[in-house]
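Record TonB-dependent receptor, 940 aa.
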Amino acid sequence: MRAAWRRGGAGGSFAPAKQLPSFPHLMNRLYALLICLLTLPLAVLGGTIKGRVTDARTGEPLVGTTVYLRGTGHSDQAQLDGTFTIRNVAAGEYELIGQLMTYEPHSQRITLTSAQPDQVLNLRLRDKNQALAEVTVQGHRDPEGEVAARRIEQVAPSIVNVVSAQAIQTSPDIQVANVLQRVSGVTLERSTNGDGRYAIVRGMDKRYNYTLVNGIKIPSPDPYNRYVPLDIFPADLLQRLEVTKALTPSMEGDAIGGVVNLVMKDAPAERTLSGQLGTGYGQLFADRSFLGFGRGQVNMKSPAERNGSGYQATPADFPWVNYTRKAARPNLLGNLTFGSRYGKAQRLGVLLAGSYQAQTRGSNGYFYETGITQDNQPALRTLHVQQYSTAQQRLGLNAKLDYRLNARNTLRFYGVYLQLDEAQARAETDTTYKGTARPDVDRLLRNRYQRQGIANATLQGEHQLAPRLAVTWSLVYSRATNNVPDVVEQDLKLTASGNYYQNATRTWLDNTDQDKAAYLNLKYTLLEGLDVSAGALYRDKDRTNHYLAYSLRPSGQPATNEQDINSEAYTVFNPLGIYVGNNNYTAAEKVTATYGQARFVRGPWEVLGGVRTEYTDQSYITSLPATEAANRGGQKYLDVLPSLHLRYALDGRQNLRASYFSSISRPSFFELTPHNNAGSVSESNVYAEAGNPYLLHTQAQNLDLRYEFFGAGNDQVMLGAFYKNIKNPIEYGLVTLPSSTVTVYQPINPGTGAATNFGFEWVGVKYLGNFGLSTNYTFTQSAITTDKGRSATAEDTRVSVAQKRPLQGQSKHVANASLLYKNPRSGFDVQLAYVYTGARIVQVGQFLGLDYWQRAQSQLDFSAEKRLTKSDKRFGLTAYVKVQNLLNTPYQVDILAAGAPGVLGTPAVANYPYQERADRVSVVNQTYRAYYLAGLRFRL
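=>
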């Protein structure tokens, strides 16, 4: 072999080179290199750290906890069952950190070796509020999360459903009423904009439920009734939403269906600033323009208010509104929440929250005025084709303060203000039918501005007077207002002989409902597991209603300018605008209540029972002359309401419950005032409407059974049944006035004096990995018998006949189903939510079988959100999107053929517009289209 030479040292001498390795030796080296390359990924992957994060006190999984190795890039988030996995960790010693908002960080040293590359750990985090026991309400644990909501349901003394702020935030809903439709057994009564307004619980009409804010009953701005319009509440102010379906003695007794409690956000354990900003648009206004008017054109005060009650109004006092058609503005939604604790040992907690929503909503549709033929069949009279355009502004403010005087005494203050402004314009075309279509058509415009407000201020104290004796008290002032100034209706009639302006009206309506209340509760622990409680309530309610209406009459000549109402020479027909009737009254209600109850806990058993008494004193003064007997009146009655609630814990995750309670429902002041509008009967209301000063309040006996299972994470099963026997239910029926031949349509206690309502409920939530299915279903059956009118041989000859039917508002089948995807690791959350509401009576008709039935409907909504920042950062940013009413579900109301078999499909009805089926008469249809919203949320 020829020698090879290499350069040597600095001297430049040369030395022979090393000989190249032999081929076998080279192959051995290549094999060693290949094995090293193959095993290198295993060395890089390293070990795996697995585990589960739970609450140190309750053992519940803490979803979303960030788990990381300090000083490395390794981290994970706890999944729905609390588990986490950190992979590819090289051998070495590390500090493992578990961190979650409102919990103390958990630190743990771990060591991974080549011999033991994997670790399985359990992290138990302590609530910060437990560490600060001297400034914390017991049970204030991750208050906005799903874990806390499930825990409240599990340990509650009675039957409760809870929706957490976390679930509300990720749902497609932005108002409280729409959130309620996700609760088992709850359906909604909607406004003309498609938004939910009132809750119907277990088929019991809205009159049979009441609303609380932070556990305190609030008054209603509704001009006619007690129930609170829930669309006034923005959902983003809530910490949780509770629906109680079985009353305990410590709860006010005037609810037969259920109680809705809005728990507003509370002061957090550490300083927090959060908020959101979103925008959206309604598909309805992508297809048509928005009809609007300037709010500055609305006369906030009537001529009588401006000039005195004796003022003679002239046409100059009623300037006409100018309407505009333009593209709808994009919607704007925003909220901001700040919370912190201050002072020595953080004794002072502060929470300030505000929400603002500006939306444009509306609907397209029609409705028929109906009458009756001489063979007791529905007759179609006037067809109203309508377009609604509504500009809404919703404002919500919430303030909470709590101060720990010492270890035994705490003071709290809650302040809530809610305001809903609606500027609504309606364009309507009316066509009147009497057998055949008449050539005259009305073109009607109406504008209506309404401001509703609710203000509540509550001062509370909690005091541990002795080791076994505790006392709580509350002083409450609440005020609800409703102002509807200068409602304008202007009508242009189009006929073959010419077009004429018709009578116009201008009305002013306002009402105020004011509550002053005091609560006192005492609790004494006799021995471990047994305590007794007693308490009292006094509420003084004052209500005032005002109504003023002016009628303007045209010249009777053809319109000189159909596009300008100012060209018409109107005269004021009733210049004083005085309206004597049921909307002008003052009323008072004084409720004095006491209760006593005992709670016994031993092993798996919890027994709570007691009795409540409520004494009601109602009085009113109407606008009728003082010389008339109906000028004033009232009622007084005492109710004794026992209840008993049993809970048996099969194990740490399963409960059996049984509840009995007695409850009542009071009539509204509007229903008690003895008005009679016999002089203003229309074709659709053949009988005069009247109040009923002899109306009795409703009483009910209620039974409930429920099985509950609370699985890992959010898994849950609830199966229950209920039965209600209702005495003196309030329904509308036909009555002949005493010593008279006049028949009126008025609220009555039906002749049978009783109604029944029973059914069963199912709730099921199950997750497989990150995917989940949430379902609930309620079956309800009710019955009531009322008197109805029926035609005999001629249209003006009618008799009274008893009819058995379901309760107003009761749907036999109600169901919810939501497909869920939750990935805490990536912060991605998706929900597709479906709601089914079965057919139900929405208005009790005056005539036999001719009730108004809302068709069964299905609604589909969608929501998604994605965290844009890392979970271990203090600053969090999340993008979200919500879509409501994907199916464009309409609101449809019919008179069914079941009320008049074999007749509704006759050509006389079937040939009218919008009558497409022979088995029903379509009387109402409203469509809303889809609604889209997108935005960003942040948290510091």
